[in-house]
Design goal:
13-stranded antiparallel beta sheet, two-stranded antiparallel ribbon, globular
């Protein structure tokens, strides 16, 4: 399909899109936020970890004196489900250029008791206050043009199972990392894709927290078929992304002892490395 | 110098070495630990961040039902100094294979009030309970034999300033990453070294938390002369290290906006990738 065809007729704006509505938190009292976790961001029945991190990141942006996540670490404790949740935040330190806080997402058991799903520790700052120097040696991932890549709508669905999240995303995966979808995984721990939100909303620091965890797991290209639950995910947001589609490259080098790391890079349309992330995940060996 | 000459006459054992004595925490009450931060692990006047992480990691190993840090994230809030400190821990979740907790290190201001230095969020497990599968594609760093590498004792001191920590460590730096010490930085964000404890104590999961933050900063090879304070450091311990010297490789790809990442790999004598880490640090541009 053409790149144009992958764009919606009416492009949603930051602040008025599915992503903004589904990550909106309501302040119950100082530092405490209610949210109804949307079923629209699930993979099979699990709520996507990047969407959940964006919810927690948004609550912290309100609770802290700084608005942009510079480095945010999440430990995933129990599986989240669509429905009511509460985010409790705590300000650890408020500095001039950086502030640090914690956030916890809770849901409720049958007796109505709070069960913690995720614990987050993060330091926030102001991306717009950073100097313009760029002395990176990193180079953008080589991904074919969008019309030579494949998304869920191109079937056979590269993302297995019923995954509502695929309707929220513009994913165009590099065919070189799609061997697993054709039953012939490359054996390389690589996954690359064009990335955007389906309603055309441009990227911002919060949506970068989603972008790093929205591709199929690299484990699929390593020949593993089972799910790969995240234990811990840390994201560094390095720059405010330019408008336009993102390129996401994920690599895994160390599959051992039943765990693997997933390193993600997110590049914007201006060829700027806007986010780096690493997660530790469990590998269910086939 | 020869490799033999770099080893002490009497090799310290795990549990009975400088590192063990200087990271020893005393339980004041459940979850609260006192420690006297040693001046022996300072760089100029700053207490090394890896040593501090090992102190916090040791307290958590006592507070949690599992003993080995699988993934541990530290946010550095204020500068630590040698002297009394208290570590306060909190158990977030106790699971069968993983448990999660937080730890904070506090020191005291002139009025005796507690000032938080570091906040940690970590998940612990049992490394010995992991399956033996190794399907890593990572390869060990290429470092010349130890007798062709250079440490502080080989002068001109590759680690600038008076740094007591250099007396605690066996560092043999790859000459290819020592250009900065000769006034000719390579421009590549790379630092590689053989690593051990000066008293010959073998590595364990706790000392790996030190190893990832004990080399000169990659920024020196990028031509920066100022200090590079750590904002956040996350370490994944992937395997219990085998006896013998470690190899540590640190790379920086993205120096931009006044920040940089440092990715560390630690390899043991059995060619096993035993730890991976990433930190976000401030770059003081020259």
């Amino acid at each position: 399909m053409s790149e144009a065809a992958s764009l919606p007729a009416v492009q949603a704006r930051i602040g008025d899109s599915e992503f903004d509505r589904d990550t909106a938190v309501t302040r119950r009292e100082t530092g405490v936020y209610d949210i109804d976790l949307s079923a629209g961001w699930t993979i099979i029945s699990a709520v996507n970890g990047g969407y959940l991190l964006a919810v927690l990141g948004r609550a912290l942006a309100d609770a802290l004196p700084h608005a942009d996540p510079f480095t945010i670490s999440a430990h995933y404790l129990t599986a989240s489900h669509p429905g009511p949740a509460v985010v409790r935040t705590d300000v650890v330190r408020s500095g001039r250029t950086l502030s640090t806080g914690t956030a916890s997402l809770f849901q409720y058991d049958d007796a109505g008791r709070e069960v913690e799903r995720i614990r987050v520790l993060a330091s926030y700052g102001d991306l717009d206050a950073l100097p313009d120097d760029v002395r990176t040696t990193a180079v953008p991932p080589v991904i074919p043009p969008m019309d030579q890549c494949f998304g869920p709508e191109d079937g056979p669905a590269p993302v297995p199972g019923g995954s509502a999240i695929t309707d929220r995303l513009m994913l165009k995966l590099d065919p070189a990392t799609l061997g697993w979808a054709l039953g012939a995984p490359s054996g390389k721990g690589e996954m690359r894709s064009w990335f955007g939100l389906a309603d055309g909303r441009d990227a911002d620091p919060l949506s970068l927290l989603l972008a790093v965890d929205a591709l199929p797991p690299t484990a699929f290209e390593l020949g593993l078929s089972g799910w790969v639950p995240t234990v811990e995910l840390t994201v560094h947001v390095r720059s405010r992304p330019a408008p336009g589609p993102l390129r996401v490259s994920i690599t895994t080098r160390n599959l051992a002892g039943g765990f693997l790391e997933e390193d993600a890079e997110v590049w914007d349309s201006a060829d700027r490395l806007v986010a780096q992330s690493r997660q530790l995940a469990r590998a269910r060996l086939a």
